[in-house]
Amino acid sequence: MSALNTILLPISAPNAIERALAVLSADGLVAFPTDTVYGVGALIHSTAGIDRLYEAKARSANKAIAVLIGDPAHLDQLTPGLPPFAQLLAAHYWPGALTLVVPRRAELPANLSSLPTVGVRMPNHPFALELLRRTGPMAVSSANLSGEANTLTAQQVWEQLAGRVELILDGGPVPGGVPSTVVDCTQDSLRILRHGAISEEEIIRLLRA
Description:
This protein is an alpha/beta fold.
């Protein structure tokens, strides 16, 4: 891939959101802070942007890309519906460290996932939420080269992805930590696909309350 002129911009810049929207609307890639690690993403309906996301990270096309949202109402753009227990989990834990695996709408780009499902999360980070409310759902992966360490600062993103993405938004250090808990919401009963920040016991207590 040919090297890009990557711009590094603080999230406090008055035009940070507008610059991100301009890049994304042109099938570009933007890296930004979340409540765990820095992420890099493309608009959910940008097939070219998602292709570039795989390319920028040197990521296998067999690995699905997760979706981040800034508002639970955005779920309607991604899935035909959720079982009642999944609606309860989203209402209780979002924004936060919970990823819901839901049936995907057929009109979503095929390169988002080779599966009939998509993983969705609403991050607990003020700037990320503001950006996602403006963009709508985004296809987002960790802002690092595939197989390399997760990035916790914009400088670390720069070291791995400069020349590969158009814009890096600097929100200072992020905490890293335990990944989100992943719950299968394609059936009517609870199934944990990945144990993470929210324990299975805590989820079960909520559902039984």
